Amino acid sequence: MTQTAIPCTLMRGGTSRGPYFLRDDLPAERDDMARVILAAVGSPDLRQIDGLGGATTLTTKVAIVGRAAPGQPQQVDYLFAQPALDRAFVDWGPTCGNMLAGVGPFAIESGLVPAQDGETRVMIRAVNTGALIEAVIQTPGGRVTYDGDVAIAGVPGTAAPILLNFADAVGGSTGRLLPTGNALDRIEGVDVTCLDVCMPVVIARAVDLGKTGQESAKGLDADRDFMARIERIRRAASLAMGMGDAEGRVIPKFAMLGAPAKGGSVAARYFTPLATHEAMAVTGGICIASACKLPGTVAAGIAAVSDAMREPVVIEHPTGAMEAVISMGADASGAPTIAAGGTLRTARRIMRGEVYVPSRVWAAK
């Protein structure tokens, strides 16, 4: 069997992991690209024994990075792909803020962005959602360093900090901060807030679902009735948000909030959506933190936040905590809105080389 070799870098980005590709090294057509990605990670197969996939959704993510067209505010474009494990399907709908953490270092080391001495700022456009993000990468002596003393929950050890600032986070998927027009909706008998900041998320109070918000990821996944219930709510909310039927799609996401128990601002459990996230997604975390700062949402009376215009919101999750810094503003009518959201992540290059796919999948010219 002949094979096609494709340049690839395996990286950890935040609490996720997967191959990073240069856009020009993959097929031009999206369907052809999807077939190559599935072959590269070894899907569909729950063990992904024949590819680079890590046999979980968090460790089977793909970043595709290319140089932006001249005249654009961004330097690079970042296309995120979420391959399914159990079927031949790639979801292009969401983005991934954790994999985003590796885009800046990858772009610098691939020659797309020149490194500066000290820090290098990389402007990134998330192709899936249209969001513009500034990533601040540590580059002492004009070279990317992964060594540092920053620890993030869900990742062992420490690494260099990567600051991610989401400048135009509102309405990337639906065009509105509150897609239904309301801070609070009642869907399937449960109060929810449908919010679109970095990621469209349907947010409920844990207590309204018979939970506390302190449950383990495994414990929630094992409660099949609960998981089926939140999926019904998510799908109904998706229709109310103007996003269509969410069956088989990973957006909107779902989250539930509880009172903090470890000194944070709020406790949250985030769903991917058919399994509980073992930590916290960056984009989802910024959306949850935004709900804590906006009046009238399900977070009212739960989240320990102030009325400051800029505030770090600490989200307790199953394996620790994540901090999201939220900057408030006002829309044209004077109503409160989200001006920006940011967070601190880390990344590490694990391997660089070539991944092979059967030539019947793609015989590159």
What features would you describe in this structure?
This protein is an alpha+beta fold. The chain folds into two domains: 3-161 and 347-358, Diaminopimelate Epimerase, Chain A, domain 1, CATH 3.10.310; 185-326, Diaminopimelate Epimerase, Chain A, domain 1. It is 16% helix and 35% strand. The protein has helices spanning 30-41, 97-100, 103-109, 217-222, 224-240, 282-293, and strands spanning 3-13, 16-22, 62-67, 76-83, 90-91, 118-126, 132-139, 162-166, 185-187, 190-197, 199-205, 253-258, 266-271, 310-317, 320-330, 336-345, 347-358. It has a 17-stranded mixed beta sheet that branches. The protein is globular.
- The helix/strand series, from N terminus to C terminus, equals EEHEEEHHEEEEEEHHEEHEEEE
The number of helical segments is 6
Q: Which percent bin holds the helix content?
A: 10-25%
Mean pLDDT: 95
The CATH class of the largest domain is Alpha Beta
User: What class would the helix/strand composition place it in?
Assistant: alpha+beta
CATH H-level superfamily of the largest domain? Diaminopimelate Epimerase, Chain A, domain 1
Residue windows where pLDDT falls under 50 for at least 5 positions: none
- Shape summary: globular
What is the strand content? 25-35%
Number of strands: 17
Tell me which CATH architecture of the largest domain applies here: Roll
What do we call the CATH topology of the largest domain? Diaminopimelate Epimerase, Chain A, domain 1
Number of domains: 2
Largest sheet: 17 strands, mixed
